[in-house]
Every structure is written in structure tokens, then in C-alpha cells.
Design a protein that fits this description.
By secondary structure, this protein is of the alpha+beta class. The protein contains two helices and 17 strands.
């Protein structure tokens, strides 16, 4: 009886050791090993890969590092510029890449600076005008604050309905852009 318990214990130990060895050998070839996002919080990273911002606005880029010197650089400072503290300023519409250089590697973040093609539109009743968001090709959600004065289609075509003033709102990736519509 005692001998069978010992053999049973050795068999269980052998199979557990065999399974662990196979897992150690095969782990580098699995998707879990290649998926760096599982371990991303322990490595150097920026708070986002893509930033959408309005022309003339600023935002802060955060870098998760411990005791390392960092330099920031914009590939096109005419579109978006960044200072030594990670504050991004949207200068003109378009997109650019922000490079965050550390001792070991370079991290990248795409910045889209967006704006409407017109700030104010004057039109007559029944007249149509197109609004566009410059700086991105992302999907835009259009809305008129008062549809009895001006209507807008899902493609940004504004039509004057009756005399008055209203705003057309464009929403892109969490950013709200407004255009004043004056119908004569």
C-alpha cells in the first residue's frame, strides 16, 4: 500500500514537471508572448497613441517612466509643437508625429489638429453650403442646434430654412466644433 502511494506521487510529480517544461519551451511561440499590451504597464509608454485636438488648443502628453531623461520632438512643428514638459500646441490643421526619445527607445504618438473650413456662414433661405472638417478623414457627426433655421446632412451640407441664427455642430473623436449659421 505504501509503495503504491509513493509511485502515485512520483507519477503526479513527473507529469506536472513535464507540463511545466512544455509550457516554458512553447511560451515564446504563443500569442501571449507576442502580446506586449499584457505587460505594457511595466514598460516605457505614452498615455495614448493618437491625439485629436482643435486648432489653437493645447493638451498634455504623459509618459510613464521612472528616473529617465526624456526629449520631445514634433516632426512638423507648423502643425503641432511640443515643449520640453510634454505640452502640445495645435498650430495649423493636419497631422504629425510626436517623437518621445528616451535613452533606450523612441516612442511615437500621432497628433491630428482639426478645424472647420468656415467659422461663420451667411446664406439665404433655401441656399446650400458645404462644411468640412480639415485635418482628418475620420467620421464626423453633424448636428444643427435649431433645425427650423438651418438643416445639415450627415455629410456637412447646410441648407437655410428660415431667417435666424443657429449653430451647426461637428463632433470628431470627442472634439466639438461649431460654425455659426446666419440665414437671411
Amino acid at each position: 500500500m505504501r509503495k503504491t502511494k509513493c509511485i502515485y506521487f512520483l507519477n503526479v510529480f513527473f507529469y506536472i514537471a513535464l507540463i511545466m517544461l512544455v509550457m516554458i519551451l512553447l511560451f515564446p511561440y504563443t500569442k501571449f508572448y507576442e502580446n506586449k499590451s499584457l505587460f505594457q504597464s511595466f514598460f516605457e509608454r505614452v498615455n495614448t497613441k493618437t491625439i485629436y485636438m482643435e486648432k489653437g488648443s493645447t493638451c498634455k502628453m504623459n509618459l510613464f517612466l521612472v528616473n529617465q531623461r526624456v526629449t520631445y520632438q514634433s516632426q512638423n512643428f507648423r502643425i503641432a509643437d511640443i515643449n520640453q514638459f510634454g505640452k502640445i500646441s495645435g498650430k495649423n490643421t493636419g497631422n504629425t508625429m510626436i517623437l518621445v526619445k528616451t535613452k533606450k527607445k523612441t516612442l511615437k504618438c500621432r497628433v491630428y489638429v482639426i478645424a472647420l473650413n468656415k467659422g461663420t456662414i451667411s446664406c439665404k433661405k433655401g441656399e446650400q453650403t458645404n462644411l468640412k472638417v480639415k485635418g482628418t478623414s475620420a467620421w464626423v457627426k453633424w448636428k444643427s442646434e435649431d433645425q427650423s433655421i438651418a438643416k445639415v446632412t450627415r455629410f456637412g451640407k447646410v441648407t437655410g430654412v428660415k431667417s435666424g441664427t443657429t449653430y451647426v455642430i461637428a463632433k470628431v473623436k470627442g472634439i466639438t466644433l461649431k460654425c455659426e449659421i446666419i440665414v437671411i
